[in-house]
Design brief:
Order of helices and strands of chain B: HEEHEHHEEH
Mean pLDDT of chain B: 93
Helix content of chain A: 55-70%
Structural class of chain A: mainly alpha
Shape of chain B: extended
Strand content of chain B: 5-15%
Strand order of the largest sheet of chain B: 3-5-4
Largest sheet of chain B: 3 strands, antiparallel
Oligomer: heterodimer
Number of helices of chain B: 5
Number of strands of chain A: 4
Largest sheet of chain A: 2 strands, antiparallel
Low-confidence stretches of chain A: none
Helix content of chain B: 40-55%
Strand content of chain A: under 5%
Distance between the termini of chain A: 22 Å
Radius of gyration of chain A: 23 Å
Order of helices and strands of chain A: HHHHHHHEEHHHHHHHEEHHHHH
Shape of chain A: globular
Chain lengths: 562, 195
């Protein structure tokens, strides 16, 4: 690792905290303000009486589900009909049924898994009015649910968690839209296209013709980074120079991946008046992020056996960043690609600025493990932190068992019902991922998707369902679209999104009804280093033990073979 | 039922705001403030579009600097980017790297007799992530400079200073890695004149 590389990572972390903290305080204000603005009051007048009432967890969850079903229908229809609709200057045809199904699931669930190449499959209309809208809305749904869950922890002796429409409106207009406008403008200044003109055709210096895809990219890239969506405008995502032209654009896009999820930890601390506890949770997340970079970067700098035995120069310095440059870009180099890889797999973003598939066995195992812990290391906007609460409660419960007391969390007694819900929330997705991987590995239709043979093919399969089930969307891209894989993936994404989401709401509903028990000398403190270490331990044990057998069949064998 | 009606209303309004108003506003701003950058950073010569500074194009003639290998079909397709997606232990990767090494040795050795595999920078033999990486590493450019100077009959020092002039440093002197823009460098070489 070079000094330059390390200092880039340190600066990244410092800026993340410096911006994430004030953003968190701002978000806390946004969600707790009693009186809405003029527009908000107008909307509620239109939506009808009672539309602004506080909702209990069941009503809140039901609204989320109905809302998502309506968007599912719209997004599927736009893709199928794009050939007959406007804003299609390159005359692209309608998207095939199973790709449209998978893509719909993918964007409604904030996953952005892509079984299609953006620039040659989706019309400008589909990209803008379909996919980009979902980038905003699915992110806002996650943020709204988190706000409700945090209220459940903060409130006492009530069943109300807040109002979905209000939380949705405020997430969109007070957080996502302003940040997206700023980021889009900065990206345009770096060379990201933002135009309604069709592709350009160039005559190259050697006299050949070259097609140059463009379109309204910057506006979409801004939100796909900020909303932990990750679906690229171009097929190779943020590796494409049009999507990510400079080192500066790369820094901004990378910052946008973790900004809101990091800020939400501080928001939580403010809303429940437990700032020290929030810092401990943040530190636990950050430690796991740092470990990821610490494993990935040296592995990539060391390079693969294929490169080392080829005899070419992979040493860093003297005018190159060296290392495993396969499927990486020169202007981004190794350090920035490693940081991005870890950030995007921690945050359920899933955008990439270099291919995971081509990373070394040890390097590529990092995103695989990150995904498997359920996207709680910062995690998706909203969904990361509400997923983290499952692990926090399990950690509190284990600590309670060790000292032989009824566990408490922020003054509330944790009982059997809460632990059951937390266990369901934490274990449902990893279990589903393992079952689906097994199905895909033993069936002919599943194996049809595998590009690389042998062990690497297994890793690709595991990653595909890991990524979709956890709503990440990044890919060991060597996994092809068939009607089987697209449909199974769609199921993985819907269940991976809505089971933990409803579990979190149920948990919050249950916590909101409890009274506050004053802390005593026997209360296990959740605002110290001990709890931080325990939390990391619980995450590593729970998720780690589930994935370890699968890892041994994939990256570990691969690493030993070479 | 009420929730369904409200959801339908929300879908219409949100699609108008985030699907049309937001991108249209950004596009309007871009066309005024960054007309060239926002339309694909196209490069013109004699009034014709010859490429984009953000996309590599095929350079195979010995008188030009060559970009990194590309996995798109055809190579350097800026309309359909793609990774190569060869795993780290893939035999295909090993073969592709070896083939690229041999091709470079064959191309460069007449002008650089001492060149060995160990002096070839890794970016010269590996596919980029986008397939249209517009840059090569400064080390890669230096490796090719002897051939360019000999074929174009220009002093090596001139080629080197052109490389330096077309190297994009780190953003703000800090972020990213330095890279040499191949299209701009080749355009500058053509401008020098000569054969």
């Amino acid at each position: 690792m070079s000094g330059q590389g390390i200092s880039q990572i340190v600066v990244y972390s410092a800026v993340l905290i410096a911006l994430g903290y004030p953003l968190g305080l701002w978000m806390a204000r946004v969600y707790t303000r009693e009186r809405g603005d003029v527009l908000e009051r107008g909307i509620f007048r239109l939506l009808g009486r009672k539309s602004s009432d506080d909702q209990d967890w069941k009503s809140y969850g039901k609204t989320v589900l109905v809302f998502s079903v309506v968007f599912t229908a719209l997004l599927y229809a736009i893709q199928r009909l794009q050939g007959h609709l406007f804003l299609n200057p390159d005359h692209l045809k309608g998207v095939s049924p199973h790709i449209a199904l998978n893509t719909t699931a993918s964007f409604v669930t904030n996953t952005n898994w892509q079984y299609y190449g953006g620039e040659y499959t989706m019309s400008y209309l589909t990209q803008m009015a379909g996919l980009a809208v979902q980038n905003f809305v699915s992110a806002a749904v996650g943020m709204a649910v988190l706000a409700a869950v945090v209220r459940g922890i903060a409130r006492r002796s009530t069943s109300g968690l807040g109002n979905f429409w209000r939380d949705l409106y405020r997430s969109l207009f007070y957080i996502l839209l302003p940040l997206s406008i700023v980021l889009a403008l900065l990206l345009i200044s770096q060379g990201v296209p933002q135009t309604f003109h069709a592709h350009a055709t160039a005559t190259t210096l050697q006299g050949a013709h070259q097609t140059i895809a463009r379109g309204p990219a910057a506006s979409q890239i801004a939100i796909k980074q900020l909303g932990t969506n990750g679906g690229g405008y171009y097929n190779s995502n943020s590796a494409v120079p049009f999507e990510n032209p400079t080192g500066w654009s790369n820094f901004l896009e990378m910052l946008a991946i973790l900004l809101i999820p990091a800020g939400q930890v501080f928001m939580f601390g403010k809303m429940v008046a437990a700032r020290r506890h929030a810092w401990v949770v943040f530190a636990a997340m950050f430690a796991m992020f740092a470990i990821g970079v610490g494993v990935n970067l040296p592995a990539e700098q060391h390079g693969s056996q294929v490169l080392r035995s080829s005899g070419v120069n992979i040493t860093q310095g003297h005018g190159q960043s060296g290392g495993n440059m396969v499927d990486k870009e020169v202007r981004l180099g190794l350090a920035d690609t490693a940081t991005w890889t870890v950030a995007t797999s921690d945050a359920s973003n899933g955008s990439v600025n270099g291919a995971f598939d081509a990373q070394t066995a040890a390097g590529g195992a990092v995103p695989l493990v990150n995904l498997f812990v359920g996207e709680v290391i910062f995690g998706g906007v909203g969904s990361g932190l509400y997923g983290m609460f499952f692990y926090i409660l399990i950690a509190v419960f284990i600590a309670g068992l060790m000292v032989g007391r009824t566990p408490e969390y922020l003054g509330k007694k944790i009982e059997a019902r809460e632990i059951k819900i937390a266990a369901l929330g934490a274990l449902f997705v990893p279990t589903m991922v393992l079952v689906m991987t097994a199905v895909a590995i033993v069936t002919k239709s599943g194996l049809a998707s595998v590009y690389n043979h042998g062990v690497h093919g297994f890793t690709e399969t595991l990653y595909a369902y890991d990524s979709q089930g956890n709503n990440n969307g990044s890919a060991f891209a060597g996994y092809g679209a068939t009607s089987f894989s697209a449909s199974l993936g769609a199921v993985a994404m819907y269940f991976g999104r809505f089971v933990p989401l409803l579990a979190a709401l149920a948990l919050a509903g249950s916590l909101a009804q409890k009274r506050i028990v004053p802390a005593s000398a026997g209360t296990f403190r959740t605002d110290g280093a001990t709890f931080g270490v325990l939390l990391v331990g619980v995450i590593v044990l729970t998720a780690g033990l589930m994935i370890f057998p699968a890892l041994t069949l994939g990256p570990i064998v691969e690493g030993l073979m070479h | 039922m009420k929730t369904l009606v409200r959801s339908l209303a929300a879908v219409v309004v949100l699609t108008l705001v985030f699907g049309f108003a937001y991108p249209a506003l950004m596009t309007g701003f871009a066309s005024v403030a960054f007309a060239g950058k926002s339309t694909g950073s196209l490069v013109h010569r004699n009034g014709k579009i010859v490429g984009s500074r953000l996309a590599a194009q095929a350079f195979t003639w010995p008188r030009y600097f060559h970009p990194r290998p590309s996995a798109t079909a055809p190579a350097y397709n800026a309309g359909a980017t793609t990774f190569a997606n060869l795993g780290p232990t893939s035999p295909d990767l090993a073969k592709a790297v070896q083939d690229n090494v041999q091709a470079i040795l064959k191309l460069e050795r007449p002008y650089n007799p001492g060149l060995s595999a160990g002096q070839i920078p890794v970016d010269a033999v590996t596919t980029s992530a986008s397939g249209i990486d517009p840059d090569i590493s400064p080390a890669n450019a230096a490796m090719q400079s002897g051939r360019i100077a000999a074929i174009r009959h220009v002093p090596l020092a001139t080629v080197r200073s052109l490389i330096k002039a077309h190297t994009d440093g780190r953003s703000l002197g800090f972020f990213g890695e330095p890279g040499v823009n191949v299209l701009e460098l080749n355009l500058a070489l053509d401008k020098l004149g000569g054969k």
